[in-house]
Structure formats: structure tokens, C-alpha cells
Amino acid sequence: MVGKTKPRWQRVLLKVSGEALAGDGTQNIDPKLTMSIAREIASMSRLGIEIAMVVGGGNFFRGANWAGASGLDRASADHIGMMATVMNAIFLQASLESVGVPTRVQTAYRMAEVAEPYIRRRAMRHLEKGRVVIFGAGTGNPFFTTDTAAALRAAEINAQVVLKATNVEGVYDCDPRKNSCARLLDHVSYRQVAAMGLNVMDLTAITLCQENSIPVVVFDLNKPGNISKALSGDRIGTLVDHIGSSVVSELDRLSDLQQVT
After folding, report:
1. DSSP state of 261
2. Alpha carbon distance 46, 49 (integer Å)
């Protein structure tokens, strides 16, 4: 049950990482996880929230990791990675439609047999009609991440927020895998993300969100109910916006002082 009677957001961009779709990692896509995602999106879509999605492809192929292997150049590797995102998009579309949610896949590549080409006005019309729109193939250009694609599409369709669903609870002040004292941050600013080198999004993506005043919420995809909470605007994970936290600002100031001395 969602805590708010009236959702905070009217139109959202939900970014789902490819690695998160693999679940426990025993297979490329965990169908139980995609069905769980679909059911939560369905419940929120019926409340009138307009939902667009960008999905990664790292569960199949991550271009940056393969560049240089067997003579594969970075641009070609990135194109393979972008095609991997389309496989995830089609799988998510099937999951959503199986629970009664009309869904359209739009891709930055032209793939007329399986998806529509990305057309901004058509995407917005689908959203207005209550359809979930999944954007595949990233931006269609190498050297850009799917996080950047999410920020770009969010700005283009006038989304009010980017919701980034990952395998972690939110944004930490340092790597929790290397430091047991790592602290989960509940609110940071765009500036603090860049200054502290926080692992939220790549700099291009976070800059796009900053320039267009689009807040970002980073949360754990694997916790039941989190997608519904994020879509409805409940406070979970980490919020990134212009304001940030005074506590983090003080940590940032002390860090700057240490660098000066």
C-alpha cells in the first residue's frame, strides 16, 4: 500500500540498470524480478502516473568492458551494448503487457520489426494515453551511457524526476564494499555529487539533470514496494537536487579545507 493518496509526480522517467534485471546473477534476466517490476508499475500507472523507462544492457553486454577485446573498438562495443538494451526493453514490454499495461518500445536505432523509432512527440502522446514507453538503444550514439540517455529523454519529454533503480540502497559517501563505515546519504546536491565524486550517474548525465532542474532519486530495485514508493514520490534512497543536505555540505567544506591545507 502506497502511503500517499495523491502521487507527487505526474510524469516520471524510470531508469532500470541491466545488471539489476539479472537478479541473483544465475541468468541474464530474472523473470520473477521483471514480473515484480511490471506489477508495481501497473499499480502506479492506474493511478494516472505517466511512466517512461530507460533500461540498461549490462546483464548481456557492457561496451566499456569489452573495448579492446579481440580488436573490438570502443564505438563498436558501445553499439553492441545498445542493442543489448533493446533485448531488455522487449522483455520488459512483454512483462508489462502480461499484467494489462499497454506498452510501447521506442529505439534510437530503427528496428521497424520489433519497435517504433524514437519520436519525441509520439512518445509524449503515448504517455498522455496512459501507455508506458520504454526507450531502448540508449542515445543511439557510442561513448554515452544509458544514464545519460535517461537524463536526455527525461528532459525531452518534460519528466519531473529521474528514478534510478539499482542494486544498492542509495548513494554512499564512499564505496561500502571497501569501507564498512560508509554512510548512506539521503539528500545531496548536484554540486556535491561532482565535488565528492559520488557514484550516482556519470558527469554528463548529472549535468543534464542539473541544467534542466530534474531531481534524481537513487533506490534499491530489489526491495519489494520500492518502485511503487519511488513512483508515488515517497522518500526512499537518495534524492539529488539543487538543494542537497547541509550535513553533506559541511563534509564537502571540510574536504575542501583539507585539500587546501
Report:
1. -
2. 7
**Which tens digit of pLDDT belongs to each residue from 122-178?**
999 999 999 999 999 999 999 999 999 999 999 999 999 999 999 889 999 887 778
81 with 139: CB under 8 angstroms?
Answer: no
**Listed residue (55, 48, 37, 89) closest to 233, CA to CA:** 48
Q: How far apart are CA 106 and CA 117, in angstroms?
A: 5
Domains of the chain by range and CATH?
11-260 (3.40.1160.10)
- 78-133, pLDDT tens digit by residue? 999 999 999 999 999 999 999 999 999 999 999 999 999 999 999 999 999 999 99
- List 51's β-bridge partners, or say none: 12
The DSSP H or E segment spanning 152 is helix 146-156
How far apart, in whole angstroms, are the C-alpha atoms of residue 224 and residue 80?
Answer: 32
